[in-house]
Amino acid sequence: MKKGSLFFVCIVLMVCFSAWIPDTNAYERYNDGCQTCHGPFVDNPIILTIGDKHVIHEQMVSGQCDVCHSSGDGNNPYLGRSNGIPGLPGVGCIGCHGRDYGLSVTAVSGIGLRVFHDLNVSNNAVPCSTCHIDTEPPHPESILPVYYGGPGIQITNSCNTDGSEDRDYDGIGLDNDGDGLYDGADPDCFVRLCFINEDCVSPTNPSYPEYCKKAVGDCDGQGTCQPIPTDPCLAVIDPVCGCDGVTYNNECEANKAGVNVDYYGPCTQACPDSDADGYVICSGTCDPSGKLCGDCDDNNPLINPGAIEDCIDTVDNDCDGLTDCYDGDCAAHPICIVCTDDDGDGYAVEGDTCGPIDCNDADPAINPGEIEICDGKDNDCNTATVDGSGESWYGNPTSCGLGICGSSGQLICANGSQYDTCIPDVPEAEREKGKTCKDGLDNDCDGSTDAADPDCKNKGKK
């Protein structure tokens, strides 16, 4: 590690400082081991014109003490925890210098400390293998530690392309992967072009997985080698179709599998037509490609929406969800005909092949064979038939009234009873001798005419 940048790494002598497996960090707090080699965290100048480790780190986190500190730690920070701030987990020193296996947020491994301390065994540094039992290599130089670029964090780029890692202003950042190469001198920071994932084996970390990242829809084009993401993907269902023809829940999950996105949305592959009957099962993730949807058995060419329901084989032949007699197509089939006649009048409620429909199967006197009597009921199951029109008297003519009051009508059915529509005319008075008493008419409709009417005799007297 270069001179002058040791302050940045040493905050967590994580030789071993991160426990690279789910156990514990090599030391719990800075003063437990780090200060043995790196001196006190406070009052130990790094660069006289800038200040000690505490001042430097305070600048790097924009004065947000909770990024590094836990409540009451007394400037002896814990290596693996802190209060944290919104947008940054409380993982403490390892947020920039190490890796955390035990918390929900996965930081990156190594960040220079592991390999750096191993490489300096000759300088009496303790090798990590004495503290840590795993042998996972550190991430490449280009991988950002979990805190880099976080809210208020002044370091944003692990390849130091923007100078943010140069905390002592000598133009050089940190050797994050501990391979002895800094910033642009490390091949991990080069832009490497590729066509397939096999083109992206890291020259300094061949065991670290990378893939050939390409623009969406450019599966066969040229891309750049980038690390396969390691952070957990959000549990969001936003399907994408990968260049491998597989549908992934979202773009993150595709990239974690080392796969580029062909297009957004689920993959639409050609729907298979295994029985070659021209019908396919359209699942929503395949393209019918000129075939017809709706097949319910793609292994039997005799079963599809164009087939005829067999009615007696217990199979849904036409794929309409109905089988045999439950399918309307089988209504006329002899085995499917059922005639219900609960009142025993010889008429069924089903109609069709069972004959005229009985409109009241609880009354044997009501059916299509009955005459329409005058009772206020639909006796013959025909609402167009007039009530009582089947009675022998229905429509017979009637007469009423005497003299000039005489009128005619007929017998009908009204409200379930016989009714005579004949209404006599209004009578006139027999008066004024020489007029109504001599006109030959029974004007007052009492059955007597002119002189025979007592009214005319009385009118003739003086």
Would you kindly provide a written description of the structure presented here, covering whatever features stand out?
This protein has 462 residues and is largely without helices or strands. The protein has 5 domains: 1-186, no CATH class; 193-264, no CATH class; 269-336, no CATH class; 371-426, no CATH class; 429-462, no CATH class. It contains 7 helices and 15 strands. It has helices at residues 6-10, 34-38, 53-60, 94-97, 113-119, 251-256, 454-460; strands spanning 45-47, 51-52, 193-194, 210-213, 223-227, 240-242, 247-248, 261-264, 269-270, 279-280, 286-287, 292-293, 397-400, 407-414, 417-420. The longest helix is centred in the N-terminal third of the chain and has 8 residues, at 53-60. The model is unreliable at 1-24, 99-112, 118-125 and 131-136 (pLDDT under 50).
Descriptive keywords:
462 residues, little secondary structure, 5 domains, three-stranded antiparallel sheet, 9% helix, disordered N terminus
